[in-house]
From TrEMBL:
GO CC, one annotated term: cytoplasm
Sequence ranges assigned to domain GST N-terminal in this UniProt record: 1-77
PANTHER family given in the database record: GLUTATHIONE S-TRANSFERASE THETA-3, PTHR43917
Entries under SUPFAM superfamilies matching the protein: GST C-terminal domain-like (SSF47616), Thioredoxin-like (SSF52833)
Name of this chain's protein: Glutathione S-transferase theta-3-like
GO biological process: glutathione metabolic process
Superkingdom in the source lineage: Eukaryota
UniProt organism field: Hipposideros armiger (Great Himalayan leaf-nosed bat)
GO MF term list: glutathione transferase activity
Matches recorded under Pfam families: GST_N_3
PROSITE patterns assigned to the protein according to its UniProt record, in alphabetical order: GST_NTER (PS50404)
Length: 124
């Protein structure tokens, strides 16, 4: 798991799901380029966050990680319903937000934090 400031980088997993699962998290400081390291490339060859390592299995992309964890740890029905049609609505939203919001939010974020398109502000 990783952390980075920007859209699409936070995957929410409730505390109840994490407790007793054996999962742990590791912060990745993208402002220092940590996600470009050879060590991180072993988890995600694309060198982007978020990423998941579960034993020898690795996975990238926030929606894929969310679905994997929801299925592996049998997320409560209010998070990821068992009912096929209700689950399809959740999947529909996840697909929509990933494609419809991400580029617009990223553009807005860069306009806010980047002086005249010069790149991120110090500390990012």
């Amino acid at each position: 798991s990783g952390s980075q400031k920007g859209p699409g980088c936070w995957v929410g997993v409730d505390r109840e799901t994490l407790e007793g699962s054996g999962l742990s998290t590791t912060s990745v400081v993208s402002s220092t380029g940590q996600h470009h390291s050879d060590a991180f490339a072993q988890v995600n060859p694309l060198r982007k966050v978020p990423a998941l390592k579960d034993g020898e299995f690795t996975l990238a992309e926030s929606v894929a990680i969310l679905l994997y964890l929801s299925r592996k740890y049998k997320a409560p029905d209010h998070w990821y319903p068992e009912d096929l049609q209700a689950r399809a609505r959740v999947d529909e939203y996840l697909s929509w937000q990933h494609t419809a919001l991400r580029s617009s939010c990223t553009r807005a974020m860069w306009q806010k934090v980047s002086p005249r398109g010069q790149g991120p502000l110090p500390g990012w």
